[in-house]
User: Fold this.
Amino acid sequence: MLSAEGLRHAFGTGGGRVVALDNVSFSLEAGQTLAIFGPNGAGKTTLLKVLAGLIRPDAGRATVAGGRGAIGWIGHQSHLYGHLTVRENLLFWAALYAVPATIRATRADATLRQLGIADRAEQAVWSLSRGLAQRAAIAKALIHDPPVLLLDEPFTGLDLAAAAEFRALLARLQGAGRVVVLATHNVGEGVELATDVAFQRRGRFVHFAPRGARGPAQIADEYRRAVGEGEGEGDLLRQAWTVARKDLLLEFRTRTALVSALVFTALVLTVFNFGRDPTAVATIDLAPTILWVTFTFAAMLALNRAFQLELENQALEGLLVSPLSRTSLYWGKLLANLVFVALVEAVGLPLFVLFFDVPVGRVLLPLVGVIALATIGFVAVGTLFSALVIRTRFAELLLVVLLLPFLVPPLIGAVQVTARLLGGRPLSEAAGWFRLLAAYDIGFVALATLLFPFTVDE
Assistant:
């Protein structure tokens, strides 16, 4: 009833060409439902438009038994006329699809009842809510009783009840021998209806097989692996930078974590400065501990914010469903957190020098080095634990409780090196501590990268 043979299509010219379809082939018989999953930009809409005859492919052929009149199409727009009523729209489309005049009104009323909008039949389309307009668009696609349904994100705008009703309707149509092609980026939508499943990435089917006994969770897991296959180091780094850039943009727009960390740093250093007794304990003996206590707790404020950004509108769920690699997600968060903490330290170090009058000019380079090494270590661990506790009720408290024991090695090393540097001791005396910090960074960045996928998967 529906077939595609070697479909290829690209947009643009020259070096700016974007491949939307790359050798896509499949065929469907009566009663089959193909669910196509893929991220935005994978070419799903282009494929449906080629099947519907809206786009002429650069190569290949798409065939629908019965031609265009046999297709029911739901796209990103409703294709309804705003100043006509819902019923008038349906009667218009029924006439275009050659539904006999004697049954148009009956068919329209029955379709409206099926979709639960019979009470809106005489309402102008422009006045409908997004969800009701989507129901009307579905009614328009079904008004001529098409044997082939092409559905592009059909559940968009539908509430849970309406989505469930629509799935039940699709199940009935499937049982009646209809062919359905459903494209979405959400693996949980309509997967129960699928007889066949395809994963589309960059215009190509990277997976196409009967659904069999696979459940939604298994298909979701296979989808994440399939769309990530073939991603090289460049893709991982590009995705990581995309995540980091988004976090940096959000933080510099809201400045919530950054400002609070900077205020905390200035406040703590001020309190320590006026609360110490320089005649009892030499400043040079207290300074390293004060510096690292300040940096550690200021960094925790930034780390607490790392995954709270993803709770808004369940953005984290969207990230996990997308083809974003878990490794890239961790590296992106790590990079953004390092930038936040580095900014806090860049402000805190001059304040520390100003308040405590410690000589750092001649040891500035190795001091910056030890700050960088220690920061990478505890931010790497902190980013992992921030993801681990984000779904708990007491995330901020749990982060501190879990994180502090792991910070003991880098903090001891950082304090020891800082004390030797500020005390004018030879750099060679701190070489062992530098090696400890470097080994800690390498080990825990690698370990956190391996463990991170298990912390975000439910």
Observations:
- The CA atoms of residues 269 and 275 lie 10 Å apart.
- The beta strands are 2-11, 18-28, 33-37, 59-64, 71-74, 148-152, 179-184, 196-201, 204-210.
- The first strand starts at residue 2 and ends at 11.
- The two ends are 40 Å apart (CA to CA).
